[in-house]
Amino acid sequence: MASVLYGWGRWAARRRGRVIGMWLLLLALVGGLGISMAGPTTTEFTVPGIESQQAQDLLQKKMPEAAGGTVRVVVAAPKGTTLDAESAQSALGKSLAKAAQVPGVVYVANPFETQTVSPDHTIAFADIQFRERADKVPESARDALTGAMAPARDAGLQVEYGGDVMEPGLEVGGPAEIVGVVVAFAVLAVALGSLIAAGLPLLTALIGVGIGVLGAQLAANVVEMTSTATALALMIGLAVGIDYALFIIARHREQLADPEADVEESAARATATAGSAVVFAGATVVIALAALAVTGIPFLTVMGLAAAATVLLSVLIAVTLVPAVLGLLGERLRPKAPKARARKETTWSLAWARAVTRKPLLVLLTGILALLAVAVPAKDLRLGLPSNASQPAATTQHKSYDLLTKGFGPGFNATLTAVVDTGRIPAADREAALGRLTTSLAHVPGVAHLDTPVPNADSTLVAIPVIPTTGPDDKATTDLVDHLRALKADVAHDGGTLYIAGATAATIDVSAKLADALPLFIGIIVVLALALLTIAFRSVLVPLKAVAGFLLSIAASLGATVWVFQNGHLNGLLDIPTAAPVTAFLPVLLIGVLFGLAMDYEVFLVSRMREHFQHTRDADQAVTHGVAASGRVVTAAALIMVAVFGGFVFNHDPIIKSIGFALAIGVFIDAFIVRMTLVPAAMALLGRRAWTLPRWLDRITPDVDIEGTNLPPSTSGSQPDAESTRRVPEPAEPR
């Protein structure tokens, strides 16, 4: 691999104009198409085959008027008054009459007729039904609907909106995300010691992210793309794009510290050595993200593929555009006072390596116990999707949730729908069968009351709204759905089919589907890690140690996420409106992304150890040398990722907020506790045994040479790491 990348890097540095022009042309082409022909994105997370989706499909087929998007308009009387006042009723009536004229609206409920007024007559709600699905309702219709409620607002009524049509759109690129990028630039400037060099990773990463995200928007014309997918592609692409460029640029400047080093030769060697690690690490990220397809969940598959494509672009840019830019800038990237500077920069990382390896067993046990303590809350992990309670407190969605809870109880935010297919029940028996079902539904513990059943035109399908006593995020609501579904046998006995649907039931079904997919996905990731790291380091113990560290990182990251988002700690600091279950697809996503990033640091750190070991056969010195040589860059890379992901913690969208937090804390734990602390301690304990491979396995394992051992000797200057460029032969394993 290193030999191929060496030639590639030299070609890119020499043909820098063509390479830079090609990438800029691709950015302009994809960017232009992505902006002008961007496809629609959705905020719905649908999963084919789950019961709630089957019910939704059935409604769409047999009762399309009930399958469209809904808006729940919640109104509250001014303090000290009620909605019984003639002025309030008149204003609300005018507003609802105007709402009925909004294009696409097929039904508007009057709360005084449907009796959806609170017992104290201070709060009421009206459901408005659209013909189209929620994600198909245009923004103009939403604006027209809010405009229609002007008479109610003018009369002093508080008007708030809920329902799937009014789901808030996802916005990224706000002040918090920008601050994250600024922090990343500051870290780059300190790590590289040059403002010019610091700007390069940001520039190349933005090119890759621009192509990836705008390309995803273009792809949304042919595949259903969630808004979270494009945000994830931006988040991951920006972080890894900066890091991959940083590793190559740092290696290039390290080599240029030798006054005799040639710029093109250095760019080629940096691409061959650090670039090999980038390609290998990037491949693990791409494979891990693409492996999300094994969950069998379409929106998660698209999300993983969009992020994987952006990471692949980041890798290609790192090994083509970066060496081209290095060739373009030439001598301007050569550091000043190279020898003194180099000694100064490795002092802290060398001291850390010696401290960690002085008493490795104590360090290892302390670190493991600390991570297990952080992981404890993960045992109570509950999965779900954000309800309106999780939206920012200032939003109309959150206010409507609070008003409904105050006026009617939390269950009105978790309305379920019992969908009954009565097509196979004899027409004469349908009424009696439905009567028995409604009686059974009403007596299930946790049901507050039932609304009037709504049949379709030929009475072969009936929808019965079921109001729970508890809210959408309450575990009791999940138990209620299970109890309601237990009535299927009774309905089947009469010849019908019962489905329990609605947004809350869909959330429960999606969460269960994702929870079932977790063990398989973890198994695939573990096997993948063992295989890739065995190929990379030609070792058995190094991959086993890496996987154990990865599992510790995942457990601790999930524990911290549960402690904050589910248990409600740090809510004020992180602007989290309320405690709620963890986003259903976050664990799978965290495992896939963090696996790739953890392997990044493992490869960059351990490859320098192996490089030194191959030259000297001194296992102890290889550990300290590896940490000293790569510690500064790995630390900078981790800080950049924490800054980028951390910026998304302050995004208003609850899903992006939780993903940003989980990835930021996960990278911090994995980089600084696992890779920079536990890995050197474990490697010190393993000694030479870390680099052994059984003969039978050695014969079938390909030699990818990510350290650049087989590169031709440098034609100018000395090489930065090697006491000798000659590889010391590995002793044969005893029989």
Report on this structure.
The protein contains 25 helices and 13 strands. The protein is α+β, with helices and mostly antiparallel strands and 735 residues long. It has three domains: 446 residues, no CATH class; 93 residues, Multidrug efflux transporter AcrB pore domain like (Alpha-Beta Plaits, 2-Layer Sandwich); 118 residues, 2-Layer Sandwich (Alpha-Beta Plaits), CATH 3.30.70. The strands form four sheets. Strands 8, 9, 10, 11 and 12 form a five-stranded antiparallel sheet that branches. β10 and β11 form a beta hairpin. The C terminus is likely disordered. It is found in: Cell membrane. Keywords: Cell membrane, Membrane, Transmembrane, Transmembrane helix. Its main location: membrane.
